What does this fold into?
Amino acid sequence: MAADTTARRRLRRLAEIRPERGLVLSVFFNLDPSEFATPAARATEVTSVLTEAAHKVDEAAEGLEHDMHQALKADVERVREVLSGSDVAQNGTHGIAVYACTPADLLEVVRLPHAIESRAVVEATPWVEPLLRGGDDGEWCVLLVNRKVARIFCGPAPALEEVEQVEDDTHGQHQQGGWSQARYQRSVEQEKLTHLQNSLETLFRHFKRTPFDHLVLGAPEDLASEVEDRLHPYLRERLSGRIAIDVENTGVDEVRAAVTKVVEEKLAAKEREALDRMAEGVGRGGRGAAGIPDVMAALEQARVECLLLADGFDAPEREAAIEKAITQSADVLVVRHHDDLEQYGGIGAVLRF
It folds into this structure.
């Protein structure tokens, strides 16, 4: 899907950068609003990380040509400049990664919807691992709809914003009997159907303008199945779950919290499927590898379809494994919801063949 494809291309492009001269400065800023709630606090964090970056650059000076050292020092200032002049946490940004290397004509800012650990890294290649930390969750959309109102929220799950609202003049049901009641109920049913049609057409128009990867539905229980049945096929295939929530009176923070649970459930299920495939392949001596030697050998042979890393896996081979997987267009999945990989030293893989 669109967001997923863009992220993969960026990861691969960054992972393939190998400057002929000099080193790459990779700088990461944690802007989690629970820790850095004000522009002043975020600015202080940026200054602190850039100070660390300057120290890392000076530490790298030994054994580095003078002009390459000067280029790194200039890269620190380039990063400072690109982040100055506005609040860095705009549009739901919870983390920022900046990659700079003057000899390679590289200066790239990556805004992230998830928090990351603040740090500065000076290496021969861009350090892409923190870009994997948020999971492969793409762009999300939430449709909240009842018989009268529809609200549409879109964006990364932690940074959803309300983008559309549909409100139709509809009547409620009542309990009087007789022919008039039956006619009234038919009118109420037609108004409901018209409102659903208007809401779903608005949703699909938004999708065509701004595609998303996942759709979550919030609707009264007696309406939810009918809404799902009426979704356009393109939207139905993106349906990722339901949330129980007040359609008309819920604030954006509550919507974000509810959808974050859906995201975590989806990621946990994705991890479970991959781990089961790996275990089956290992057990049969086929399309599975576990442990550092076997996984690194499979990467050397370009056999890896999906690299699996335990959240706490920090062996020296980690960075090389990630880079090899990305440059071979393999998925990289950091497993945070299950402990299966512990018995294998924290690393495994699903193999292509």
About this structure: The chain has nine helices and 13 strands. The domain at 140-250 is CATH 3.30.420.60 (Nucleotidyltransferase; domain 5).
